[in-house]
Design brief:
By secondary structure, the chain is mainly α. Helices cover about 85% and strands about 0% of the residues.
């Protein structure tokens, strides 16, 4: 893979990391369609020319085979014409038959070789293109998996932070109640002293 494509994949990974999560979700993110389309468009533009050539050959496989067949047929036709010319010459009739058979055999052999070679090359190109495409998809799968792992880790850290904040808030609230309890304890001795003074003065006379 070329360095430019690796750079674009890094940019896509960074862009995915920078996307915000959808509300109430820790797996779905909000993506700017124009930005991701632009990154994908640049990735397509940076695709190696060799892969484009492979794809073109695969799409034109039938044309390649047909061209090979046409060339083979041309060789056979030339051989047939040459054979007829030799046969028309009576004094070299036997030689003409021998040469004609050799030419036809050679032409047939060459035609078969052309077909076999064209088929082999087309299959090789197809396998190479499929392998390269699979590598690209594998890299993209790894990027997405890595992004998901990072997103989950960030989400878990956020939950931990929120729980810590919740504990701090609860602790602060709890610290408010001892103040009220101390005030209540300070009031109780005053009431007790009043009751004791009342008891020492004795019962009041009612007129």
């Amino acid at each position: 893979m070329s360095s430019k494509i690796e750079q674009l994949i890094d940019e896509i990974e960074e862009y995915i990391d920078s996307c915000k999560y959808q509300a109430l979700s820790n797996t779905k993110i909000i993506v700017n369609k124009e930005e991701i389309d632009e990154l994908l468009r640049e990735l397509r533009m940076k695709t190696p020319d060799e892969i484009k050539r492979y794809q073109k050959i695969i799409s034109n496989k039938e044309a390649i085979l047909n061209d090979a067949k046409d060339k083979a047929q041309e060789l056979i036709n030339e051989a047939t014409v040459h054979t007829n010319e030799l046969i028309n010459e009576h004094e070299i009739m036997q030689q003409a038959y021998a040469q004609a058979n050799e030419i036809v055999t050679l032409a047939t052999q060459q035609a078969q070789e052309i077909l076999d070679q064209a088929t082999m090359e087309a299959n090789e190109v197809r396998n190479a293109a499929m392998q390269y495409t699979d590598d690209l998809l594998g890299n993209l799968e790894n990027i997405i998996s890595h992004s998901i792992d990072i997103a989950n880790a960030k989400y878990e850290n956020l939950i931990v932070s929120l729980r810590n904040c919740e504990e701090i808030v609860q602790s602060n609230r709890a610290s408010l109640y001892p103040v009220e309890e101390m005030a209540a304890e300070e009031e109780q001795p005053a009431e007790t002293a009043q009751r004791e003074n009342a008891a020492q003065d004795g019962p009041l006379d009612i007129i």
